[in-house]
């Protein structure tokens, strides 16, 4: 009886950690939209998220004695970070700018279907009939979301849709890369150097800001929050959750994120999908759940 209570307590703690992770992730679109509205460029938003996240992980690794000087593995993580972090973060910010934060989070949720393809291609995992049907449903949902034009009133933006789909692809490539290196190094070390590579690549493409008025302190604090709260703290909570519950339960529970993300930007900025956008969004969310459960079986 004591063991059962102990297991139930561990599972409850894990569930609470993953709920907290989803909540922290859900604020990213809202905070980014605030920074963009205040005058930050999409590239600046992406850069400072990577920079502040990297700094937080460096401090974390130094405190626990895992800080390593760059050598071949770290340099490879930095090189991947130029794509997996630099391109991913910048694509997401451009999608928020042109199509809205709600559109961004939904199109990022196409990542699990890229992951399924990567798992089949690189790790020999067989695609079942249920998984193929799930991918088909997600494809229809993505088409509906894209045809809706986005979650803001500015209208259809092909560039915003393209960057949204690209951000999902970038995020999906984290799976095979991190899975490979996790057997060799702690996750905190991997993410430290991935974020360092992403910050470096984004810094190289930052636009000039000499013609722009100085940004208020509140904007810089919000920008720091995207890296420290929505990236570093969310990852730490996610790692704690995975120590206590299965990956399947974690992924299913984290489906709370897109719901909360869309709720925040609707309440604060009035973002809203058309009917086809909402239908497509539901198709993508449901298909992710089906895909996750089928992979568990």
What does the model show?
80% of the residues lie in helices and 0% in strands. With 297 residues, it is an all-alpha fold. The model has no long low-confidence stretch (mean pLDDT 83).
Defining traits:
single chain; mainly alpha; 0% strand; 297 residues; 13 helices
Brief digest:
With 297 residues, this protein is mostly helical. 80% of the residues lie in helices and 0% in strands.
The count of β-strands is: 0
Beta-strand residue fraction: under 5%
Instruction: Enumerate the spans where pLDDT stays under 50 for 5 or more consecutive residues.
Output: none
What is the overall pLDDT average? 83
Terminal CA distance reads 28 Å
Shape: globular
- State the helical fraction: over 70%
Structural class: mainly alpha
Enumerate how many helices there are, as a single number: 13
Largest sheet: none
Task: Provide the gyration radius in Å.
Answer: 19 Å
Elements, N to C (H/E): HHHHHHHHHHHHH
Task: List the topology elements.
Layout lengths: L1 H36 L4 H22 L8 H28 L1 H8 L2 H13 L5 H20 L9 H15 L1 H9 L4 H18 L12 H26 L4 H7 L2 H14 L5 H22 L1
Helix pairs in contact: 1-4, 1-10, 1-12, 2-3, 2-9, 2-10, 3-4, 3-7, 3-9, 4-7, 4-12, 5-7, 6-13
């Amino acid at each position: 009886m004591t063991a059962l209570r102990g297991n139930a307590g561990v599972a409850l703690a894990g569930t609470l950690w993953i709920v907290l992770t989803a909540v922290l992730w859900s604020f990213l679109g809202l905070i980014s939209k605030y920074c963009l509205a205040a005058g930050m460029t999409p590239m600046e938003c992406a850069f400072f998220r990577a920079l502040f996240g990297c700094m937080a992980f460096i401090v974390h690794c130094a405190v626990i004695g895992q800080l390593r000087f760059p050598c071949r593995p770290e340099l490879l993580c930095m090189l991947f970070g130029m794509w997996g972090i630099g391109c991913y973060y910048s694509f997401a910010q451009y999608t928020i700018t042109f199509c809205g934060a709600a559109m961004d989070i939904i199109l990022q949720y196409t990542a699990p279907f890229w992951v399924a393809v990567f798992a089949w291609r690189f790790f020999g995992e067989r695609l079942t009939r249920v998984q193929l049907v799930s991918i088909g449903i997600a494809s229809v949902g993505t088409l509906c979301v894209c045809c809706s034009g986005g979650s803001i009133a500015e209208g259809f933006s092909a560039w915003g849709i393209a960057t949204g789909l690209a951000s999902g692809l970038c995020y999906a490539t984290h799976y095979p890369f991190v899975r490979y290196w996790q057997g060799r190094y702690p996750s905190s070390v991997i993410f430290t150097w991935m974020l360092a590579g992403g910050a470096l690549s984004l810094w190289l493409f930052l636009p000039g800001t000499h013609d722009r008025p100085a940004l208020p302190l509140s904007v810089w604090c919000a920008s720091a929050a995207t890296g420290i709260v929505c990236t570093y703290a969310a990852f730490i909570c996610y790692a704690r959750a995975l120590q206590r519950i299965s990956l399947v339960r974690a992924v299913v529970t984290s489906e709370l994120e897109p719901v909360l993300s869309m709720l925040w930007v609707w309440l604060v900025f009035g973002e809203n999908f058309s009917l086809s956008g909402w239908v497509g969004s539901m198709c993508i969310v449901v298909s992710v759940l089906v895909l996750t459960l089928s992979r568990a079986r």
